[in-house]
Amino acid sequence: MRILAILDRIETATYTLETACELAARLGHPLIRVLHPELQDNPDYQMPDEGMPSPEEEKRFAQKVSATADALRDIFQKWKAGLTGEHAAEWIEIAGDVRKTVAREAMNADITVLSRPRSSDPEEVTQAFSGALYDAGTTVVVAPLQHHGTVGRHPVIAWHPSSALDRAMAAAQPFLDRTSHVSIVIGEDRENEVAEPPIAEELRKKGVTVSIDRFVIASSDVGEEIRQHALKAGGDLLVMGAYSRPHFIEWLFGGPTQDILSHATLPILTHH
């Protein structure tokens, strides 16, 4: 099992590392590769009509990139120093096109851990997320924006049959096989219109307790309803397919206008 963690924001780096560490603990302590995808070119000057940066602007950009890398490296080193002997982690920095860098590295990983996107993020953060989820086609775990004690002990499956969910559940199988309790959340247009998912009986045969939580979809904000039911179930890893729709993450977290920092979140394992 190969775990890649992407660090691109100082304020969320610790939670991304904690999530990667929890995943590794559940998966037999594989090596965690921690990548900082470093900007090489100033994103303010990408088009011909945007002109060329002045020497002063180039200097400020280089200083900002260097300061971010130094801060993230320091966070990583302090985190690594506190790991037990079972855990192993390595740091890498790669400068260049962020989306292409993340996609290339994620293709060589089984799970890529990124921090939860926010509407105020710079473009390179969105590019990193898109590179992992859409370009690399890898399994992505979205780390929460706060400390989360466990990851994967109580998975919650957001049931919406699709090839993306099939791939997400396949990636989550090591967690499903190692747990004692799985919850399945089913959003329906009408009560009891969706048959019980086959995986429920498969897990019961393995001795896993399965809880089915059905709800009638009451609004267009299905992502928020799923999140609330997953939290109510006491889950610590939401497993769902990444729908082929624009702004999937904004949809899932209630849209860019919400103050998502004020809402409790949990890690999400997803696949496109």
TrEMBL record:
Protein name per UniProt: Universal stress protein UspA
Source organism (scientific name): Acetobacter cerevisiae
InterPro entries to which the protein is assigned, alphabetical: UspA
Stretches assigned to the UspA domain: 202-269
SUPFAM superfamilies with a match to the protein in the record: Adenine nucleotide alpha hydrolases-like (SSF52402)
Signal sequence region: none
Top-rank lineage group of the source organism: Bacteria
